[in-house]
Amino acid sequence: MAPVLDPPETVDWMGKQVPVWSMQTINYGLLLSQDPGEIDKVVNACLEEGYFYLDLQGIDGRRMLSDQQETLKLMKRFFDAPIEAKNEFGLISSHLGYEPVGSRTGVAAGTKDGYEMLKVSRDEIQHDNPRIPAPVKNSADMRILENAIGSCNTVTKVILSALSTGLALTGAGRFENMHRNDRLSTTTLSMMHYLPSALAGQNRIGHQKHTDISTLTLLFSEQWGLQVRPPGTCGAREMGFVRPKAGCAFVHVGDSLRFASGMKFQSCIHRVYFLASLVALPLIERVGRRKLMLFGAFGMMGSMAILAGTTSTGTTNEDGAPQLSTAYGVTAVVFLFAFNSFFAVGWLGMTWLYPAEVTGLNIRIQANALSTCSNWISNFLIVMITPPAFANLQWKTYVMFAVFNAALIPCVYLYFPETSKRSLEEIDLYFARAWSEGVSPVKMAKTMPRYTATELDNELAKYFSAADIEQRRGSMLQSRRPSAMTQAPDEPSVNKNTTQ
Protein backbone atom coordinates (compact mmCIF):
# COMPACT_ATOMS: atom_id res chain seq x y z
CA MET A 1 0.00 0.00 0.00
CA ALA A 2 1.47 3.33 -1.01
CA PRO A 3 1.76 6.08 1.63
CA VAL A 4 -1.21 8.44 1.87
CA LEU A 5 -0.23 11.58 -0.03
CA ASP A 6 -3.57 13.38 -0.37
CA PRO A 7 -5.00 15.23 2.65
CA PRO A 8 -7.03 12.60 4.56
CA GLU A 9 -10.68 12.88 5.40
CA THR A 10 -11.23 14.29 8.89
CA VAL A 11 -13.88 13.93 11.58
CA ASP A 12 -14.80 16.28 14.39
CA TRP A 13 -13.73 14.77 17.72
CA MET A 14 -13.59 16.61 21.05
CA GLY A 15 -13.70 19.97 19.28
CA LYS A 16 -10.98 19.40 16.69
CA GLN A 17 -10.60 17.85 13.27
CA VAL A 18 -8.87 14.47 13.44
CA PRO A 19 -7.71 12.66 10.28
CA VAL A 20 -9.20 9.38 9.17
CA TRP A 21 -6.43 7.27 7.66
CA SER A 22 -7.20 5.06 4.68
CA MET A 23 -5.82 1.55 4.31
CA GLN A 24 -5.73 -1.46 2.03
CA THR A 25 -8.62 -3.97 2.06
CA ILE A 26 -7.63 -7.62 1.69
CA ASN A 27 -10.19 -10.20 0.51
CA TYR A 28 -10.09 -13.21 2.83
CA GLY A 29 -11.60 -15.58 0.25
CA LEU A 30 -8.92 -14.74 -2.32
CA LEU A 31 -6.23 -15.01 0.34
CA LEU A 32 -7.51 -18.45 1.33
CA SER A 33 -7.30 -19.47 -2.34
CA GLN A 34 -3.66 -18.28 -2.46
CA ASP A 35 -4.49 -15.75 -5.18
CA PRO A 36 -1.11 -14.24 -6.27
CA GLY A 37 -2.49 -10.72 -6.61
CA GLU A 38 -4.07 -10.79 -3.14
CA ILE A 39 -0.87 -12.23 -1.64
CA ASP A 40 1.10 -9.33 -3.12
CA LYS A 41 -1.43 -6.88 -1.64
CA VAL A 42 -1.21 -8.27 1.89
CA VAL A 43 2.60 -8.43 1.78
CA ASN A 44 2.82 -4.82 0.61
CA ALA A 45 0.38 -3.72 3.32
CA CYS A 46 2.61 -5.30 5.98
CA LEU A 47 5.79 -3.92 4.43
CA GLU A 48 4.57 -0.34 4.10
CA GLU A 49 1.95 0.26 6.80
CA GLY A 50 1.68 -2.72 9.13
CA TYR A 51 -2.13 -2.93 9.15
CA PHE A 52 -5.07 -3.54 6.81
CA TYR A 53 -8.78 -4.34 6.61
CA LEU A 54 -9.63 -8.03 6.16
CA ASP A 55 -12.89 -8.43 4.24
CA LEU A 56 -14.76 -11.44 5.69
CA GLN A 57 -18.06 -11.02 3.85
CA GLY A 58 -17.51 -13.92 1.44
CA ILE A 59 -18.65 -17.45 2.08
CA ASP A 60 -15.33 -18.35 3.72
CA GLY A 61 -15.42 -15.53 6.26
CA ARG A 62 -19.10 -15.34 7.20
CA ARG A 63 -18.69 -17.99 9.88
CA MET A 64 -16.14 -15.81 11.64
CA LEU A 65 -18.43 -12.77 11.47
CA SER A 66 -21.22 -14.89 12.95
CA ASP A 67 -18.90 -16.06 15.75
CA GLN A 68 -17.96 -12.46 16.54
CA GLN A 69 -21.62 -11.41 16.75
CA GLU A 70 -22.30 -14.21 19.22
CA THR A 71 -19.25 -13.14 21.22
CA LEU A 72 -20.51 -9.55 21.23
CA LYS A 73 -23.85 -10.68 22.69
CA LEU A 74 -21.99 -12.64 25.39
CA MET A 75 -19.89 -9.56 26.17
CA LYS A 76 -22.92 -7.32 26.55
CA ARG A 77 -24.60 -9.82 28.84
CA PHE A 78 -21.53 -10.18 31.02
CA PHE A 79 -20.59 -6.49 31.22
CA ASP A 80 -24.18 -5.63 32.19
CA ALA A 81 -23.84 -7.82 35.29
CA PRO A 82 -23.59 -6.13 38.74
CA ILE A 83 -20.26 -4.41 39.34
CA GLU A 84 -19.69 -6.44 42.52
CA ALA A 85 -19.76 -9.72 40.61
CA LYS A 86 -17.35 -8.46 37.97
CA ASN A 87 -14.91 -6.85 40.41
CA GLU A 88 -14.58 -10.17 42.23
CA PHE A 89 -12.95 -11.46 39.08
CA GLY A 90 -10.51 -8.53 39.01
CA LEU A 91 -11.26 -7.07 35.60
CA ILE A 92 -9.35 -3.84 36.21
CA SER A 93 -5.69 -4.52 35.50
CA SER A 94 -2.86 -3.64 33.15
CA HIS A 95 -3.45 -5.05 29.66
CA LEU A 96 -0.40 -4.33 27.46
CA GLY A 97 -1.30 -0.80 26.43
CA TYR A 98 -5.08 -1.18 26.25
CA GLU A 99 -5.72 0.26 29.69
CA PRO A 100 -7.31 3.69 29.11
CA VAL A 101 -5.94 6.98 30.36
CA GLY A 102 -7.58 7.77 33.71
CA SER A 103 -8.97 4.28 34.21
CA ARG A 104 -8.13 4.32 37.91
CA THR A 105 -9.57 7.74 38.79
CA GLY A 106 -13.08 6.49 39.59
CA VAL A 107 -15.00 9.10 37.62
CA ALA A 108 -18.21 7.06 37.72
CA ALA A 109 -19.72 5.97 41.03
CA GLY A 110 -19.07 2.35 41.89
CA THR A 111 -16.66 1.76 39.02
CA LYS A 112 -13.04 2.33 38.18
CA ASP A 113 -13.63 4.65 35.23
CA GLY A 114 -15.88 2.08 33.59
CA TYR A 115 -13.02 0.23 31.94
CA GLU A 116 -13.31 -3.55 31.92
CA MET A 117 -11.56 -6.34 30.05
CA LEU A 118 -12.25 -10.05 29.95
CA LYS A 119 -9.38 -12.13 28.56
CA VAL A 120 -9.61 -15.79 27.55
CA SER A 121 -6.54 -17.88 26.71
CA ARG A 122 -6.58 -20.18 23.69
CA ASP A 123 -4.61 -22.84 25.55
CA GLU A 124 -6.97 -22.72 28.54
CA ILE A 125 -10.04 -23.05 26.30
CA GLN A 126 -8.36 -25.88 24.41
CA HIS A 127 -7.80 -27.80 27.65
CA ASP A 128 -11.28 -27.00 29.07
CA ASN A 129 -9.94 -25.07 32.08
CA PRO A 130 -10.26 -21.37 31.24
CA ARG A 131 -9.94 -18.77 33.98
CA ILE A 132 -13.20 -16.94 33.35
CA PRO A 133 -16.02 -15.74 35.66
CA ALA A 134 -18.67 -18.20 36.76
CA PRO A 135 -21.54 -16.34 34.96
CA VAL A 136 -20.07 -17.30 31.56
CA LYS A 137 -18.44 -20.58 32.57
CA ASN A 138 -21.19 -22.78 31.16
CA SER A 139 -21.25 -25.09 28.17
CA ALA A 140 -23.11 -22.71 25.83
CA ASP A 141 -20.90 -19.70 26.53
CA MET A 142 -17.77 -21.85 26.47
CA ARG A 143 -18.75 -23.01 22.98
CA ILE A 144 -19.14 -19.39 21.85
CA LEU A 145 -15.68 -18.48 23.14
CA GLU A 146 -14.17 -21.62 21.65
CA ASN A 147 -15.68 -20.85 18.23
CA ALA A 148 -14.46 -17.23 18.33
CA ILE A 149 -10.91 -18.22 19.23
CA GLY A 150 -10.92 -21.07 16.71
CA SER A 151 -12.05 -18.86 13.82
CA CYS A 152 -9.45 -16.19 14.72
CA ASN A 153 -6.81 -18.90 14.85
CA THR A 154 -7.77 -20.13 11.38
CA VAL A 155 -7.75 -16.64 9.87
CA THR A 156 -4.36 -15.92 11.44
CA LYS A 157 -2.87 -19.04 9.88
CA VAL A 158 -4.26 -18.11 6.46
CA ILE A 159 -2.67 -14.65 6.69
CA LEU A 160 0.67 -16.03 7.92
CA SER A 161 0.67 -18.64 5.16
CA ALA A 162 0.07 -15.95 2.53
CA LEU A 163 2.84 -13.77 3.96
CA SER A 164 5.23 -16.74 3.99
CA THR A 165 4.42 -17.47 0.35
CA GLY A 166 4.83 -13.82 -0.59
CA LEU A 167 8.29 -13.71 1.00
CA ALA A 168 9.23 -17.10 -0.53
CA LEU A 169 9.76 -18.73 2.88
CA THR A 170 10.01 -22.50 3.02
CA GLY A 171 9.97 -25.35 5.54
CA ALA A 172 10.38 -24.51 9.21
CA GLY A 173 10.96 -20.85 8.36
CA ARG A 174 7.34 -20.26 7.36
CA PHE A 175 5.41 -17.98 9.73
CA GLU A 176 2.50 -20.39 10.28
CA ASN A 177 4.87 -22.70 12.18
CA MET A 178 4.72 -20.15 15.01
CA HIS A 179 1.04 -21.04 15.51
CA ARG A 180 0.95 -24.80 15.81
CA ASN A 181 -2.04 -26.02 17.84
CA ASP A 182 0.09 -28.67 19.55
CA ARG A 183 2.41 -26.09 21.11
CA LEU A 184 2.02 -23.56 23.91
CA SER A 185 0.65 -20.23 22.75
CA THR A 186 -0.08 -16.78 24.15
CA THR A 187 -3.05 -16.38 21.79
CA THR A 188 -5.76 -14.56 23.73
CA LEU A 189 -9.30 -13.38 23.07
CA SER A 190 -9.72 -9.96 24.73
CA MET A 191 -13.14 -8.37 25.21
CA MET A 192 -13.05 -4.67 26.15
CA HIS A 193 -15.79 -2.42 27.50
CA TYR A 194 -15.68 1.37 27.94
CA LEU A 195 -18.08 3.90 29.38
CA PRO A 196 -19.31 6.61 26.98
CA SER A 197 -16.87 9.51 27.13
CA ALA A 198 -19.63 11.92 28.22
CA LEU A 199 -19.71 10.26 31.65
CA ALA A 200 -16.05 11.03 32.20
CA GLY A 201 -16.31 14.76 31.61
CA GLN A 202 -12.82 16.13 31.15
CA ASN A 203 -11.31 12.73 31.98
CA ARG A 204 -12.29 11.26 28.66
CA ILE A 205 -11.39 7.67 28.00
CA GLY A 206 -8.77 6.77 25.42
CA HIS A 207 -6.12 4.17 24.74
CA GLN A 208 -2.51 4.58 25.69
CA LYS A 209 -0.31 4.69 22.58
CA HIS A 210 1.29 1.27 22.24
CA THR A 211 2.32 -1.50 19.93
CA ASP A 212 1.33 -5.14 20.25
CA ILE A 213 3.97 -7.74 21.06
CA SER A 214 1.92 -10.43 19.32
CA THR A 215 2.24 -11.90 15.83
CA LEU A 216 -1.04 -10.49 14.54
CA THR A 217 -3.88 -8.64 16.26
CA LEU A 218 -7.42 -8.97 14.85
CA LEU A 219 -9.74 -6.21 16.07
CA PHE A 220 -13.52 -6.14 15.73
CA SER A 221 -15.43 -2.98 16.60
CA GLU A 222 -18.77 -1.57 15.51
CA GLN A 223 -18.02 1.93 16.83
CA TRP A 224 -15.46 4.65 16.20
CA GLY A 225 -12.56 4.72 18.63
CA LEU A 226 -9.50 2.98 17.20
CA GLN A 227 -6.67 5.38 16.32
CA VAL A 228 -3.36 4.72 14.56
CA ARG A 229 -0.32 6.65 13.40
CA PRO A 230 0.65 5.18 10.01
CA PRO A 231 4.44 4.73 9.92
CA GLY A 232 4.53 5.15 6.13
CA THR A 233 2.29 8.23 5.96
CA CYS A 234 4.09 11.30 4.67
CA GLY A 235 3.76 14.27 7.00
CA ALA A 236 1.68 12.52 9.69
CA ARG A 237 1.98 14.41 12.97
CA GLU A 238 -0.91 12.99 14.99
CA MET A 239 -2.96 9.92 15.63
CA GLY A 240 -5.82 9.37 13.21
CA PHE A 241 -9.00 7.31 13.32
CA VAL A 242 -9.63 4.02 11.57
CA ARG A 243 -13.09 3.96 10.03
CA PRO A 244 -15.25 1.04 11.22
CA LYS A 245 -15.97 -1.07 8.14
CA ALA A 246 -18.90 -3.49 8.10
CA GLY A 247 -17.93 -7.11 7.56
CA CYS A 248 -14.23 -6.42 8.07
CA ALA A 249 -11.66 -7.03 10.77
CA PHE A 250 -8.81 -4.62 11.41
CA VAL A 251 -5.52 -6.57 11.30
CA HIS A 252 -2.37 -5.16 12.89
CA VAL A 253 1.17 -6.57 12.57
CA GLY A 254 2.70 -7.16 16.01
CA ASP A 255 6.33 -6.92 17.06
CA SER A 256 6.85 -10.69 17.07
CA LEU A 257 6.00 -10.92 13.36
CA ARG A 258 8.13 -7.89 12.63
CA PHE A 259 11.15 -9.56 14.23
CA ALA A 260 10.37 -12.88 12.51
CA SER A 261 10.28 -11.10 9.14
CA GLY A 262 13.79 -9.75 9.65
CA MET A 263 12.42 -6.25 10.37
CA LYS A 264 10.81 -6.08 6.91
CA PHE A 265 7.28 -5.57 8.24
CA GLN A 266 6.22 -2.32 9.89
CA SER A 267 5.81 -1.86 13.64
CA CYS A 268 5.99 0.97 16.18
CA ILE A 269 9.64 0.46 17.13
CA HIS A 270 10.39 3.63 15.17
CA ARG A 271 8.49 5.64 17.79
CA VAL A 272 10.79 4.34 20.57
CA TYR A 273 13.88 4.96 18.48
CA PHE A 274 12.90 8.53 17.61
CA LEU A 275 11.99 9.43 21.18
CA ALA A 276 15.31 8.06 22.40
CA SER A 277 17.18 10.19 19.88
CA LEU A 278 15.38 13.28 21.21
CA VAL A 279 16.78 12.53 24.67
CA ALA A 280 20.29 13.19 23.35
CA LEU A 281 19.54 16.72 22.14
CA PRO A 282 19.63 18.56 25.51
CA LEU A 283 22.40 16.27 26.81
CA ILE A 284 25.02 16.84 24.08
CA GLU A 285 26.17 20.16 25.55
CA ARG A 286 25.17 19.57 29.17
CA VAL A 287 26.71 16.12 29.65
CA GLY A 288 29.36 16.22 26.94
CA ARG A 289 30.24 14.21 23.87
CA ARG A 290 32.61 11.76 25.55
CA LYS A 291 30.21 10.76 28.32
CA LEU A 292 27.35 10.20 25.88
CA MET A 293 29.52 8.11 23.57
CA LEU A 294 30.86 6.04 26.47
CA PHE A 295 27.34 5.61 27.87
CA GLY A 296 26.04 4.49 24.47
CA ALA A 297 28.93 2.07 23.92
CA PHE A 298 28.54 0.50 27.38
CA GLY A 299 24.77 0.18 26.89
CA MET A 300 25.05 -1.32 23.41
CA MET A 301 27.73 -3.75 24.56
CA GLY A 302 25.61 -4.84 27.53
CA SER A 303 22.48 -5.20 25.38
CA MET A 304 24.30 -7.40 22.87
CA ALA A 305 25.81 -9.50 25.67
CA ILE A 306 22.37 -10.06 27.23
CA LEU A 307 20.91 -10.92 23.83
CA ALA A 308 23.69 -13.47 23.36
CA GLY A 309 23.03 -14.98 26.78
CA THR A 310 19.26 -15.23 26.39
CA THR A 311 19.24 -16.55 22.82
CA SER A 312 21.99 -19.09 23.57
CA THR A 313 19.41 -21.02 25.60
CA GLY A 314 17.24 -21.56 22.53
CA THR A 315 16.53 -24.99 21.13
CA THR A 316 14.86 -26.33 18.00
CA ASN A 317 11.67 -28.33 17.76
CA GLU A 318 11.07 -31.43 15.67
CA ASP A 319 10.52 -29.28 12.57
CA GLY A 320 13.85 -27.53 13.01
CA ALA A 321 12.25 -24.18 13.94
CA PRO A 322 13.95 -22.24 16.78
CA GLN A 323 12.13 -21.92 20.10
CA LEU A 324 12.90 -19.96 23.27
CA SER A 325 11.36 -19.90 26.74
CA THR A 326 8.95 -17.05 27.45
CA ALA A 327 11.17 -15.39 30.08
CA TYR A 328 14.26 -15.40 27.88
CA GLY A 329 12.23 -14.39 24.84
CA VAL A 330 10.72 -11.35 26.57
CA THR A 331 14.15 -10.35 27.92
CA ALA A 332 15.64 -10.58 24.43
CA VAL A 333 12.89 -8.39 22.97
CA VAL A 334 13.35 -5.77 25.72
CA PHE A 335 17.10 -5.52 25.17
CA LEU A 336 16.70 -5.36 21.40
CA PHE A 337 14.69 -2.19 22.02
CA ALA A 338 17.26 -1.08 24.62
CA PHE A 339 20.10 -1.42 22.10
CA ASN A 340 18.32 0.94 19.68
CA SER A 341 17.76 3.43 22.52
CA PHE A 342 21.40 3.34 23.67
CA PHE A 343 22.55 3.89 20.09
CA ALA A 344 20.14 6.78 19.61
CA VAL A 345 21.25 8.51 22.83
CA GLY A 346 24.99 7.95 22.46
CA TRP A 347 25.87 7.66 18.78
CA LEU A 348 23.06 8.53 16.38
CA GLY A 349 23.79 12.27 16.25
CA MET A 350 27.46 12.02 17.17
CA THR A 351 28.43 10.37 13.88
CA TRP A 352 27.46 13.61 12.11
CA LEU A 353 28.46 16.20 14.73
CA TYR A 354 31.79 15.03 16.12
CA PRO A 355 33.82 14.61 12.87
CA ALA A 356 33.00 18.18 11.84
CA GLU A 357 34.23 19.52 15.19
CA VAL A 358 37.58 17.74 15.48
CA THR A 359 38.88 18.38 11.96
CA GLY A 360 40.66 21.56 10.92
CA LEU A 361 39.02 24.17 8.75
CA ASN A 362 41.23 23.46 5.75
CA ILE A 363 40.16 19.78 5.58
CA ARG A 364 36.71 19.93 7.19
CA ILE A 365 34.78 19.37 3.94
CA GLN A 366 36.93 16.41 2.92
CA ALA A 367 36.81 14.93 6.44
CA ASN A 368 33.01 15.21 6.58
CA ALA A 369 32.75 13.51 3.20
CA LEU A 370 35.03 10.71 4.41
CA SER A 371 33.14 10.22 7.70
CA THR A 372 29.76 10.19 5.93
CA CYS A 373 31.06 7.69 3.38
CA SER A 374 32.46 5.52 6.18
CA ASN A 375 29.13 5.67 8.03
CA TRP A 376 27.08 4.44 5.08
CA ILE A 377 29.63 1.82 4.01
CA SER A 378 29.55 0.46 7.56
CA ASN A 379 25.74 0.37 7.49
CA PHE A 380 25.88 -1.48 4.18
CA LEU A 381 28.36 -4.02 5.57
CA ILE A 382 26.22 -4.67 8.66
CA VAL A 383 23.12 -5.22 6.53
CA MET A 384 24.98 -7.61 4.23
CA ILE A 385 26.87 -9.67 6.82
CA THR A 386 24.16 -10.02 9.48
CA PRO A 387 21.94 -12.62 7.70
CA PRO A 388 24.81 -15.04 6.88
CA ALA A 389 26.28 -14.40 10.33
CA PHE A 390 23.07 -15.49 12.04
CA ALA A 391 22.79 -18.45 9.67
CA ASN A 392 26.28 -19.70 10.59
CA LEU A 393 27.12 -18.26 14.03
CA GLN A 394 23.53 -18.09 15.35
CA TRP A 395 23.50 -16.51 18.85
CA LYS A 396 27.28 -15.98 18.70
CA THR A 397 26.58 -13.14 16.24
CA TYR A 398 25.48 -11.08 19.25
CA VAL A 399 28.83 -11.86 20.90
CA MET A 400 30.59 -10.49 17.83
CA PHE A 401 28.59 -7.26 17.99
CA ALA A 402 29.18 -7.01 21.75
CA VAL A 403 32.95 -7.21 21.13
CA PHE A 404 32.76 -4.50 18.47
CA ASN A 405 30.89 -2.21 20.88
CA ALA A 406 33.33 -3.02 23.68
CA ALA A 407 36.19 -1.95 21.40
CA LEU A 408 34.61 1.51 21.17
CA ILE A 409 35.07 2.13 24.89
CA PRO A 410 38.91 2.33 25.04
CA CYS A 411 38.98 4.16 21.69
CA VAL A 412 36.69 6.91 22.97
CA TYR A 413 38.36 7.07 26.37
CA LEU A 414 41.93 7.31 25.02
CA TYR A 415 41.59 9.21 21.75
CA PHE A 416 38.38 11.28 21.65
CA PRO A 417 38.82 14.73 23.30
CA GLU A 418 35.81 16.49 24.79
CA THR A 419 34.52 19.29 22.53
CA SER A 420 31.49 20.38 24.55
CA LYS A 421 31.27 24.15 25.15
CA ARG A 422 34.45 24.83 23.19
CA SER A 423 34.72 26.97 20.07
CA LEU A 424 36.09 25.46 16.88
CA GLU A 425 39.26 27.55 17.29
CA GLU A 426 39.84 26.11 20.76
CA ILE A 427 39.42 22.60 19.38
CA ASP A 428 42.05 23.36 16.72
CA LEU A 429 44.29 24.56 19.54
CA TYR A 430 43.82 21.21 21.36
CA PHE A 431 45.55 19.31 18.64
CA ALA A 432 48.20 21.92 17.85
CA ARG A 433 49.33 22.21 21.48
CA ALA A 434 49.07 18.45 22.06
CA TRP A 435 51.32 17.80 19.04
CA SER A 436 53.79 20.47 20.13
CA GLU A 437 53.98 19.30 23.75
CA GLY A 438 53.80 15.57 22.97
CA VAL A 439 50.68 14.87 25.03
CA SER A 440 47.30 13.35 24.25
CA PRO A 441 44.58 15.66 22.86
CA VAL A 442 42.28 14.10 25.48
CA LYS A 443 44.55 15.32 28.28
CA MET A 444 44.94 18.71 26.60
CA ALA A 445 41.15 19.11 26.42
CA LYS A 446 40.93 18.52 30.17
CA THR A 447 43.78 20.84 31.17
CA MET A 448 43.67 23.69 28.65
CA PRO A 449 42.20 26.82 30.30
CA ARG A 450 39.45 29.00 28.89
CA TYR A 451 40.76 31.94 26.89
CA THR A 452 39.34 35.34 26.11
CA ALA A 453 39.05 36.18 22.42
CA THR A 454 42.29 38.18 22.52
CA GLU A 455 44.15 35.46 24.40
CA LEU A 456 42.85 32.86 21.98
CA ASP A 457 44.17 34.83 19.00
CA ASN A 458 47.58 35.09 20.68
CA GLU A 459 47.66 31.34 21.35
CA LEU A 460 46.64 30.52 17.79
CA ALA A 461 49.44 32.75 16.47
CA LYS A 462 51.98 30.47 18.19
CA TYR A 463 50.92 27.43 16.18
CA PHE A 464 49.33 28.69 12.96
CA SER A 465 50.51 30.96 10.17
CA ALA A 466 49.06 34.40 9.58
CA ALA A 467 47.28 33.08 6.47
CA ASP A 468 45.60 30.34 8.51
CA ILE A 469 44.44 32.85 11.11
CA GLU A 470 43.04 35.16 8.44
CA GLN A 471 41.22 32.22 6.87
CA ARG A 472 39.65 31.43 10.23
CA ARG A 473 38.58 35.01 10.74
CA GLY A 474 37.06 35.11 7.26
CA SER A 475 34.95 32.05 7.98
CA MET A 476 34.09 32.95 11.57
CA LEU A 477 30.41 33.65 10.92
CA GLN A 478 29.96 30.26 9.28
CA SER A 479 32.08 28.13 11.58
CA ARG A 480 31.66 29.54 15.09
CA ARG A 481 28.90 28.57 17.43
CA PRO A 482 26.38 31.22 18.48
CA SER A 483 27.84 31.39 22.01
CA ALA A 484 31.25 32.23 20.59
CA MET A 485 29.92 34.70 17.99
CA THR A 486 28.02 36.84 20.49
CA GLN A 487 30.66 37.17 23.21
CA ALA A 488 32.42 40.45 24.00
CA PRO A 489 36.10 40.68 22.89
CA ASP A 490 37.56 40.20 26.36
CA GLU A 491 35.04 37.72 27.74
CA PRO A 492 35.85 34.01 28.10
CA SER A 493 34.96 31.93 25.04
CA VAL A 494 32.59 29.76 27.12
CA ASN A 495 30.48 30.08 30.23
CA LYS A 496 32.73 30.17 33.31
CA ASN A 497 30.26 28.15 35.34
CA THR A 498 30.54 25.16 33.01
CA THR A 499 32.48 22.19 34.32
CA GLN A 500 33.95 19.24 32.45
Automatic annotation (TrEMBL):
Region (Disordered): 473-500
Highest taxon of the lineage: Eukaryota
Span of domain Non-haem dioxygenase N-terminal: 24-125
Subcellular location: Membrane
Keywords assigned: Membrane, Transmembrane, Transmembrane helix
Keyword hit for Ubl conjugation: no
Protein's UniProt keywords contain Transcription: no
GO molecular function: carbohydrate:proton symporter activity
Name the record gives this protein: Non-haem dioxygenase N-terminal domain-containing protein
Protein's organism: Verticillium longisporum (Verticillium dahliae var. longisporum)
The organism's taxonomic lineage, starting at the top: Eukaryota, Fungi, Dikarya, Ascomycota, Pezizomycotina
